[in-house]
Fold this protein.
Amino acid sequence: MSLARKLMIDGEQTVATTRTHVKVLFLPFLVLLVVCVAAGFLIAQIGDKGDGKVGWVIAALAAILIVWGALLPFLKWYLWTYTLTNKRLVEQKGILTRTGRVIPLTRVNDVAYEKNLNDRILGCGTLIIHDASEQAGLELRDIPRIEAFHRTVSNLVFEKHETMRNDESL
């Protein structure tokens, strides 16, 4: 899910689009698995006893838990994207209400990354971008292939700053 063409500036091209590492879906997957197994077990234990309403109640509760514990986290993960273009970095998130943050590459002062042991094993990390504004730096958590994304952002920032310096010297 890339940045929509209608949101792009003239001459802007998408360089990379990413979302957080799939590891954030481990807990929702576990919720899905446990709820399905538990609901199936309970419905099987009830069997033909009673009028069947208890089975429907268990199925309804299971459906609510699956939506709340698995589907919503998946949608949140799927719809939270980071798009790097040749002019800016765009963060977009939200299911019903979409919000975003845009950092022009010409305003970026510092690009750093952090990786703890789990991140090193899974090949992800946190990218920290500071810009020339009053806001706190943008932290892109659990970015897959963090080193490659860091290199790409850094190269684009250096190119933009070099272009600005050359334009000022003319």
Summary: The chain has a mean pLDDT of 89. The longest helix spans residues 53-79. The chain is about 45% helix and 25% strand.
